[in-house]
Structure formats: structure tokens, C-alpha cells
Please model this.
Amino acid sequence: MNQDTPLSSRRPARPAEAAPRRVMTTAPLRALGVPAAETAERCRPGGPWHRLLPGVPLLRPGPPAGPDRLWAALLYATRGAWPDPGPGVPAKTAAREPRRPARCTAMITGPAALALHGFAAVPPLPALETIDVLVGRLRPPRSARWARILRTAGLPEPVTVMGVPVAPVPRAVADAVGRLTEAAAVRRLLTEAVRGGHCEPAALVRELSAARLLDRPHMMGAVEALLAEGRASAEDRLYRMVRVHGLPEPVWNVELRLPGGPSLGGADAYWPEQAVAVELDARAGRPGEAGAAGARRARRREHLERLGVTVVHLSPRALRDAPEQQAAVVRTALRAAAGREPAARPVVLPR
Model:
């Protein structure tokens, strides 16, 4: 049989198979009538195909393009069980689809996933020497050539980019920084994840903790910078919410005290006439801190409310995703408190 005969001529093509596939494994090739010996012959130097990974040939000459390496890594990691990408794989990044692809048993993670998410702190896909694949199967193959296999007990919910399942940003960042030893490189990734609006600090710290990365020496300073970045970003969202949605101007970042008494805690925004305080729930501390901090906040809130101070908690994520709704919450609290005299009017001090 002529080795240059395209696969589409081996059998009548269904509409979904009108275009030739670029990456396949040997099992579906045999089903198409291409025996292993012929696949090996076609993949010899100078042949029309070449082998990207063990058992995964590229069905055309030349280097892989677009998502070819991504699909090859997925097919290799799942021993060919991943659904065939089929024809017409787009060469440009498609809109992310918040849905789980059918039979999702593996996904792209690490620097390759971050490149797909649009990170500037990682090289573009063609320049990456390694493609990381997160696999949920119990016995995936070993890493081979440029495909690095990472096992996990439970796969996160992926997003779809370029038709490829991709790990969410917090998990992809954790898998990427796990291989880094320079604090500056780690800090760039963490900062871009938060500053670029890809994820919230709390989600990122949870993934870093789950990966047991927080106690590494080069991670400590980077995590502190991450927390500061998250705090600054949340405060900026709060400023914009107040001004864009026409709320009265509060006093910013103050400490409340009883006259001649102890501190009542801080407020990120405070309206003295109405005795309404806004606290940003921007905690993203280390594991174990959130529970204690939450208990302290609850006690402080109860104390303030007994004194007639209304406390509104806003999360950075809510300020990002629904600022108009959060502004309505604050506006309602201000109206409800109008004309109500607090039991004890706190002293307001700069924090």
C-alpha cells in the first residue's frame, strides 16, 4: 500500500472526519487499517510522519504546531484513552468554557497551562521544553521525552482552552512553582496570578499548602508578597466600588476605639455618621490561621453590633465579580442606620 496515501482514503469519511487527524495513537491507526509495521516505517527519518511520544505519531511531516504537542501529551498520559481531538482543532485560543470535558482523566498543568491562561511570566507554548500533564488514573505511564506526568488523587475541574482541558490557575501555578528554586521566579508567577485577576490569594495559598510548598525557604517571602498583593488588590476594588457606584465617601483604613477604652478593631471603610464599618475578608493566611481569625472577627463583630455599629463583610471575589451588588449591600446598611444613635460612638483613629 502506498505510504503516502492519506488516512481519509482508507475508508469513507463521516462528516466529523472530513479533515485528516494530526495526532493519533497506534490503536486507532490499526483500526483504520494501518498496521504497527507501517506506522514505524512512516515514522522513520525522512518519512511523512514522526513519533512525538511513544505510541503517539504526528501524522504529517514537519514539527508539531498549535496544540499538537498538548494532544500528544494527553493521549500518551492516558494510554490513548483520551477522546480523539478530531479534525479542525483551532490554532487560536478559544474562549474558556467552564465545563468538564467528556471523560476527563487528564489535563494540561504547570507552565503549559499558564501559557494557555495567558500568563506573561512563562514562555510561550512553542518555547516550552516540557509539557506537564495532571493524571487522575492510578497507573499512568512514566514521563517520556518532553511529557512530564504528574499523578493526583483527585483532578480539579478544568477549563477548556484551544479545545484542550487545562488545570485551573491555582493548581497550574502550584505545579509550576514546585519545580522552581528561585524566589524571584516564584514571586513573578504568584504576583501575576493575583494582579492579573486570574485567581484569589486564598485559593492559591490552599493549593500551595496542599502541595506542601509553603515551608520551602524560597517560597516564604514570595507568599508574603502574594498576601500583600491580594490585600492591595482588594482595597483597590473597594475604593472603585465606593466611587463608581456613588456611595458617600467614608474614612479609610481606620481603627475604632471606645472613648478612653480598648481597641474595637480596624475597619477598611467607616461611615461615622451612620456607624457603618466595612471589613474586607481578604485573609489568605496559612492553614490553621483562618479558623482562629474567623473566631476573632465574629467576637469583634458581636461586640461592635452591641454598641450599635453595623459591620459589613465583603470578599475580594465578590467585589471583583459583583461590585454593583456589593455596593447595594453597603447602601442598604447606610440607609438602615440613618438616624439611629449608636449606644457608644467609637473614636476613629488612623490605622
Observations:
- The first strand starts at residue 50 and ends at 53.
